[in-house]
Amino acid sequence: xxxxxxxxxxxxxYTGPTAEDLAHIPADLKTRRQWILWRGADRIDKQTxxxxxxxxxxVDARALRHASTTDPETWVDFRFxxxxxxxxxxxxxxxxxxxxxGGGIGYVFSHDDPYVGIDLDHCRDPVTGTIAPWAQTxxxxxxxxxxxxxxxxxxxxxxxxxxxPHGRKKADIEMxxxxxxxxxxGWHLTETPPTIEPRQHELITMHTIIFRPTRVAHQSTTxxxxxxxxxxxxxxxxxxxGDKFSRxxxxxxxxxxxxxSVADLALSCELAFWTEDPAQIDRLFxxxxxxxxxxxxxxxxxxxxxxxxxxxxxxxxxxxxxxxxAHQRRNGTVxxxxxxxxxxxxxxxxxxxxxxxxxxxxxxxxxDYIDFSKKWAPRAYEGFHEAAALFALxxxxxxxxxxxxxxxxxxxxxxxxxxxxxxxxxxxxxxDIALHLMRxxxxxxxxxxxxxxxxxxxxxxxxxxxPDYAEIEDDxxxxxxxxxxxxxxxxxxxxxxxxxxxxxxxxxxxMAAFRSILRRLDDHQEQYxxxxxxxxxxxxxxPYVTMLANVTIADxxxxxxTASPLWRDGYIARFAFITPGDASFNLTRFPEDDFTIxxxxxxxxxxxxxxxxxxxVTVEPITGTKGKETGRHRIVxxxxxxxxxxxxxxxxxxxxxxxxxxxxxxxxxxxxxxxxGSYARFPTKALRIAGLLASLHDDATQHTIWPAQWYxxxxxxxxxxxxxxxxxxQLGSDEAPxxxxxxxxxxxxxxxxxxxxxxxxxxxxMKLTYSEIEKILRSLVAAGVVREETTAxxxxxxxxxxxxA
Length: 805
Fold this sequence. Notes:
- By secondary structure, this protein is of the alpha+beta class.
- It contains 27 helices and 26 strands.
- The chain has a five-stranded antiparallel beta sheet, covered by helices on one side.
- β25 and β26 (795-799) form a beta hairpin.
- α6 crosses α7 (242-249), α13 packs parallel to α14 and α22 (650-669) runs antiparallel to α23.
- The chain is globular and about 90 Å long.
C-alpha cells in the first residue's frame, strides 16, 4: 500500500511547489508549452451560502488574467510559469488578503500531446497518507507517475494513451485528455514510477469497468481478418452508408466541416466496423485519399495513425460478421427482435448517448423556471414547461449569439409546437407564464403581434416609424426606439396554429407566403429583401424569428400525411413537436397564493439581455428648407448588432458529430422518409439550445460551449425526437377526431376572445344544442381550462387566466 507521511493538510493556503518538488515533475511535461497558473478561491454553495471547498481558477502567467484550457495563447512554458508564481501570489494577497487562498502551477492537457490525466478524489488520508483500496487498485493497474493533489486528499496520475469517448467523470474518478488542466504539486508518490508510462490497454480496461460496465473492452491488438481487403472495400461501398464511406475514402472531408482529424477518425471507425484487425485498418487507410504524412508522426510512443486506430476500435460497438450477418440492424439498434410498431422511436446508438449527469448541471435557471412553471401549470405536460422556457431564452437572444460552425455559423432561433388535445394539458397556460416573465423583465418589445398577414408580418420586422411618432409621450417614444433596436428579431407566439396552417395551405390565399417566409427566416441570412406594389423594396436586417405554436392533433392531421408538401419543402422539419404520449391527465389543484414571478428569474434574464448588448436607435425631426420642423421624424442611426461568437470545446465538437452521425444512421435504417428532414436538423437544434445555455451562464470571458451544455441540449432534443414519433403514431391512427373534440376546441377559442359568457351566448355562437354544450363545459371545467361563475340569474363560463399570467 502506498503511503506518504511527509505531507499533511494545512489550513494555510498552498503556495506552489518547492525547488525539490519541481524536480519530481516529469521532464516530458516540462518540455511542453502548456503551463498556466491557478488561483485558489472559496467555492460557495449557492443555496446555503456556505464555503464547501476550494475552486482553482486558471490564470495566464503573463497577464495574470483568466486562462482558457482551449486557447494555447494563454499558456506559457514551464520555466516562465514557475518564475511568475511568486509575483502572482504576492499580487493576489495584496489585492484582497481576506479572500486570498493561495495558488500554484498547472499543466493543460491538449490534443497535441499523448497524455491522459486521471484524477482520484477523496482517496487519501491527509494525515497518514494512506490510499483507499479502490484507488490503490487503479494506481497499481496503471503504474505511471502519480502525485498528491494540493489538498492532500486526492491523487493525480498522468499516463500516455488515447482516452476512449463518452465517460469522463463518475463519483470520485475523472479522466481528461484535453480542455482540462491538472494542478501540479511535485509531491510524487514514491512507489509509483517517476516517469509517464504508456498504458493504452490498461486505460481502456479501466475506462470500460468504470463507464461502460456492459461493454466488452477491445483488448486484442492483433486479430485475423474475416474478409480480404478487396471484398471489404466492395462491401463497404455497397452498404447503405456506402456513399459516406466512398466520399471519405476519396478524401472528401466536407461532411466533417473540413476537419481532417475528424474525417480520419470517421473513416477509421467505418473500417473498424468491417474488421477488428488494426493492421488491416492501417493498410487500407494508407490507400485512401485521406492519407498524409501526419499519419506516421509520433505522438509519444505511438504514431498519430496508431492512436487514431485505437480510438476507432474503442468507439466501435458493432462489427461485421462473416456470412453477411452484422451486429447492426435497422434503426441502428443491437441484434434482437425488430419493433412491430412502425412509429416506434428508434434507440440512439450507444456511441452517441447523452451524459445525463453532466446535463443535469447545465442550467440552474432552466431548472428553477421549470419548477416555477410546474407549480402554476400543474396539469400541463412536463415537456411544455421546458420548451416554453427555451422559447423565452431564444427570443431574448435576438440573434446576438453565434455558434462557430460551418461557413455562416449557427444562430439560436427555435420553432416549437405544443401538439396535444385542447383541454387536457393546458398548453396556453404554460405559454402565458413564459410571456408574463418576458413582460415582467421589460422585454415584451421582443414579441411579435399575435396574428398578421405575411406582408404585415414582414413589415413589422423592418425599421419604420409610425406617422404619429411626434404626438406620443416621451416614455412611449423611448419604448418604441427600444423596440426598433430589435425590429428584425422577434419571438412569435401563435395560439391557433391549426387555423394558420389551414389558411397557409389555401392555394393563392394571402397566407400562403408564410411557408417560404418562415423557412427563409430560419436560414439567418444577413438580410431579407422583398418588394410590394404600395411600398416598394423593403429590407429586413439580420432577420431572426423564434416561434411557439399551439396546435391539436386533429388540426395537424390534414397537413402531415405521408408525402405532404409541408414535409417535402422542409417547413414541418424546422419545428420541434412537444407531444404527450400515453401520460394520463391530472387534476392537481392550482396554488392559492398570489402569482408572482421569482425575482431571480427576472434579474437573470435582465442581466443577460444587458450583457448581450443593446443596439441604439437615434431619431431626429425632419426639417424643411428653412430649418423649420415639419412634424415628421426619421431614423438616422441604428447601432449594428454585435454577434458574440461561441466556440465548441473539443469534446463538444466530437459529441456533436457523433450525434450527427447517429441521426444519419437512423435515417438510413428508418421507416419514414418524411422524418429525414427533422432528423437531419436535430443536431443543430441541440447546438442552438447549448448555445443559449452557454451564453446565459457565461462569465463573459469563456465564450465556449462546454459538455454539460451540449448534453443538456442533446437530452432535450432526444425528448423532442421521441415526441415526434409519438405525434406520428397519433396522426397515423385511423380514428377520426371526434366531433366533441372539435367542438371543445371551438368553445375554448370563443371563451378566450370574450368575457365570461352564459350558455345561451355560447349556443348562439356555436349552433350546438344545450346538452352538447353543457357536456363539453363540464369536461373543460374539470380540467381547469374553463371557470364556472354562478350569478343570481344564470351561470357564466370564462377562459381560465391566472392572476398576472
